[in-house]
Structures are given as C-alpha cells and as structure tokens.
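User: Before I run my own analysis I want an independent prediction to cross-check against. Here's the chain; please return only the structure tokens and, at the end, one sentence I can use as a sanity check.
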Amino acid sequence: MQINLSKIFETPKYENHLHGYFDVPQLSKDNTNLLTLQIEHLDRYPDSKNKYPICIFDIKRNTKKIVSTTSIYNFQQGCRGQFVGPTFNDKIIFNDFHNGRYVSKIVNLINGNIDFIDYPIAAISSSFKFLISIDYERLFWCRKGYSYSIIKNVSKNKKIYKKECLTVFDIEKNIVKKAIYIEDLININFTNSMENATHYIEHVVYCPFDEKFLFLHRWTLADGGIYARLYHYNILKNELDLLVDSGRISHFNWINKDEIIFYGAESNKFNSLRKNKKYTKILKLILPVYKRLIKDNSSISKFITNDSYYLYRLVEKKGTKIANQLKSQDGHPTCFESNKVKFFITDDYSDIDNNSSPSLYFHDVKNNISKKIKSFKSISKLDNSPFRCDLHPRLSFDGKYVSIDTLDNGFRQSFVHKINF
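Assistant: Structure tokens:
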C-alpha cells in the first residue's frame, strides 16, 4: 500500500499550541475543527496563577476561537482535551482546577454553556455515559510529567497510597459505578518485587467501540526500572482481566473492539526475572555494564527483552508480533480499521540517535508492511527533558487525516496532514 502525507493546516507560528496524547482524535468528527491548548512557554512548567486558552481552529476557514481556559496541563497529555460523543462536534471536555480541586470541564461549542464533573478526566466513553478518572494528586509524586502541579498533597507522597483508585463515574446517574483500588491490583498475582515499591495507576485508554477500557498498574523495581501490567476492564460485565504481565509495556491503543496494538513484550525468561526482588537487585549491579555494551533499542537489546509491536486479541488473550521493521521504535500507535484497510501510524522519539529528527511510520496490519512516511525537526536541548515534544500522532475519526504536536518551526505547534493512499 502506497502512502504519503500532505500538510493542510498548522497552528500559527510565534504561538505555542499543544494537544497531548495519541489515544483520542484532535479533529472533530466532521474534520472541521481542531482542538488545541495554547501555552505561553515551551520550556517551562505552567504557572498556577495563569489561565491558558482552549482554542478551536476551523481548519477550512483558517480561523481561531478561544472557547475557554484551563489552569492546568502537562507536556505529555495536555489537559486531556477532546471532543465528546455522541456527535464529537458540539462539545469538548478537558481538565481544570475549580473550587480547590481538579475537575472535568465540559464546554458546549454551540451555546457556550459550561458544566463540571467532580472527577478529572483520564478517559471517557464514546457514548458519553462513563468517565474514567485517576488520582492526579497521587500521580504528581510518581509521574510528574503526566500530572498537574497546583495541588501538592504530601499525604499522597508514599510508596503505596491505599486510597488511590481508578474511578468509573456514571455521568447519566451522577454516581461512582466502580472503584478499582491500588491494593486490589497489588493482590492480583502478587510478586515479591512489589514489596517496598512505589505503585501507581495511569494511562487509561477507552475503547471507542464498547464500554470497556485499558490501563496500567506500574511499580518501581530495585534495579531502578519500572514494571508495568496491562489491565482490561469491561464496565457492563464488571470484569477485570490482566492481559500482559511481562512488565514491559509502554504504549497501546484499540484497533477494534476485540484487538489492541501495544509496544512491549510478552513474558520470556529475562522478563520473568524482573518479577523477583532477588534478581532485580542482581540486575541493578550488572545493568551499568549491560548499558555500556548493548545500546538501547538495538537489535540485540530487543532480542533479549523481546520488545516489539504486538497485535493482541482479547478473546484469545494472546499477542502476535507484528511490524518487525519497527521493533526498535517504541512509539505511540494510533489505529484505524474499515472494510478496506487496517493500519496504524506511530512515531519515534527525538533524540541524539536520530539527530533530533522524529519521524512518523505507517504499518499496514493486513499485509504486515511498514514504511517511514515523514520526518520533522525538533529542538535538541528539549530532547529527553520534561518539555520534550513527542509527535503523538492522532488519526481522525474517518482515518483520512493525522494530526501531530511538533517543534518543526521552532515553536510548539499542531500540524494536520491529509493521508494520501
């Protein structure tokens, strides 16, 4: 399958705009409006005293409208801004600080009405029935790059904060339908590497086609690394499943209601050692030598860890390696499937290995063919910093466009490209 990209829109130069993560479209469903967060500085944390504009760009008329503001964002996920169902044209939702707490703010783009939900959004159902929330106050102490900094609740700065939970909020009934506590997750297939470790919940990705979602339970290891488990929760069936327990999983997304794409590894002998506290202490001693001899993301490194892109089928509870040409590119897959095509677009990181030139990659799942499709410039001093700009590709609802965050022009911008097959 031949593919190339043609840029059709970019946010203004001399302004800094970002969207954030790769799991939700940045374009409205009618491909008219682009949602962005305008920030002041591309190399500083947000000032809690400031209000940052939430913008809608009409990409056909090339107009900009400020529709609201927020006090909070991070450089990885922005403020989790997104269009909401069932139309994905008329309303947006994002996180804000309101009345002393983090909340979800909903703005009606037609009449300007504003509503609040007392839980900050991590993800939301396409039906607009359920909102998933995580504890951003807790995450501040564990993953600052994915949290907000207005609230610094020191009572949550501990290895295990027992009240930490993932909350399933029923929007229609205005009640909490389910809470999954960190202690519940620790007690599933307990391993001694969990002892004296810092545990947290993050990276919720809602299925666009059903009432279910994915999330990670992560904890720190004695070797200085992080162990991650991928979970699947079906809201209507009240079923929680542990899908991947190799410890090595980073990014994932839905391609249909029964299949996901993830980057990481399924269990092997090396990964199994990381579950045991005794072996992680040994690994800590040999890791400096290992890193001197074996380069990160090299073929040898990937052979040892088994890292690659996987197509995982929920019914079979089994993953299959795909996109072998991309196995060294731990990126952010955005997926699309129709009767004719089944593909994902992913990225790599801007760093010294690629001369601060991050790229987009296309993978045809049906034919297992990969292709590098476009590269961009970055700002090298921001690479590997909390202010780095990952491309975070985001496909439109119809799979015809892809938007990215980029530093290509020396400013933080959003680009929209048409996909030409």
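Sanity check: The CA atoms of residues 96 and 248 lie 32 Å apart.
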